[in-house]
Amino acid sequence: MKKIIKSIIREIVPIILGILIALYINNWNENRKDEKYIHQILLSIDKELKESNESINEKIPLQKTLIDTLEFYKNNDTISILNVMMKADGISIPSIKISSWKAISSSKIELMEYDRISALADIEEQKENLLSKTQLLMDFTYQNIKETGADKKELIALMMRDIIVSETGLKEEIKGVVENRTID
């Protein structure tokens, strides 16, 4: 009976060790793949955030030009909002890119640190807020495109200032995420 038990143990122990080694190697390989994935996604997020910051930096002067043009023609009842928009080359809105963040947030978010997740979620929320303000501005502008009154022009300028404030806050949030990034 002891010989049978010893024989069984001699056969089972190598099998169990083989299974444990295979599990270890599989876990190590999965961790390596996850590290590579998170490294690539963080690089992509940083690239998108830098492009978004550049877009904001390019658009704010154009938006200020629109505000100045609205202020200049505010009291001129012969110049419509459409004419002002044409003189200022329209409404310029930056492109805020967060598709890499959305990709990881819907798949492997557990691989990221909480502070980074929180900051990226804040950027996404600010982007949505900016889109909402932009849509409100566009709707108001199109509904009043033929108006010539100072009050409508002043309201558009006020909406543009509010958008610039939102963009500036978003820019600072992006800057904080990009500067605090640590990739091994």
From TrEMBL:
Protein known as: Uncharacterized protein
Record bears the keyword Transmembrane: yes
Record organism: Aggregatimonas sangjinii
Membrane-spanning residues: 12-29
UniProt xrefs under Pfam families: DUF6090 (PF19578)
Keywords: Membrane, Transmembrane, Transmembrane helix
